[in-house]
Amino acid sequence: MPTDDFDEYDKVVDSFDGETVPVELGDSEAFVKQVLEIISSAPNSPLSSAPKINREEVLGVLQDALDSLPVEIREARWMLKERADFLAKTQREADEMLEAARVQAERMVQRTEVVRASEARARQVIEAANDDSRRLKSETEDFLDRRLGSFEILLDRLVKTVAEGRQRLTIVAQQPAHEISLNDDSGDLFNQDDADESY
Fold first, then answer.
1. Binning pLDDT at 50, 70 and 90, where does residue 96 land?
2. Which of 77, 120, 156, 172 could potentially form a cystine with 192 if both were Cys, beta carbons 3.0 to 4.6 Å apart?
3. How many Å apart are CA 66 and CA 123, to the nearest integer?
4. For 32-67, how does the pLDDT look when each residue is reduced to its tens digit (9 = 90+)?
């Protein structure tokens, strides 16, 4: 491998800063937040402290959130594939660098006038290539692990929020019939007490 190839490799290694790229879940979290906003801002029923909530509206938004999850799961799988492809590419480049260093070392040692210097230089080139290869591989794995960790945290938060919303809907559905307003014009409604306790 020419010297310019080693210089290009050094540029790639030096440009890697190891910072975590922000991960977003897309629309699912926005849908769940919309449900929470509907519940928290719902007006109280007449003569009751229970809020009036449009059941169809809430269920529709939750269904939209569930529909968007498969897309985000596919994005996570794509991210894993990209990680594997990137590591494989890094390994191939490292192997090519090591082979080029070996060939260069063999050519250098053939020059009888500088046999010892050539051997020492060859060892330095191979060791530097090995060190850079291990460093780049380690930094790449750490970088992708942090990115996937961020996605895992956000996905776990979304699942918990959806479960919380469904639990609130169940609580509202179990309210006594006399607490449901008979003057509601918004369609199928349900009551929910203590809507703000979990905030």
1. very high
2. 172
3. 57
4. 777 777 777 767 666 666 667 777 777 777 777 777
Q: Answer whether 0.85 is exceeded by the pTM.
A: no
CA distance 186 to 38: 13
Cβ atoms < 10 Å from Cβ of 190 = 21
Return the bridge partners of 189, or none.
54
Q: How far apart are CA 29 and CA 157, in angstroms?
A: 9
Give the number of residues written for the chain.
Answer: 199
Tokens 């985000």, residue located: 72
**Higher per-residue confidence, 109 vs 98:** 98
Which amino acid is it at 62? L
Q: Which residues contact 67 (CB under 8 A, 6 or more apart)?
A: none
Q: Which helix (H) or strand (E) holds 57?
A: helix 55-109
List C-alpha distances in Å: 49 to 27, 38, 171, 194.
32, 16, 15, 9
53 beta partners: 190
- Domain definitions of the chain by residue range: 3-14+23-190
53: helix, strand or coil: strand
pLDDT at 1 over 80: no
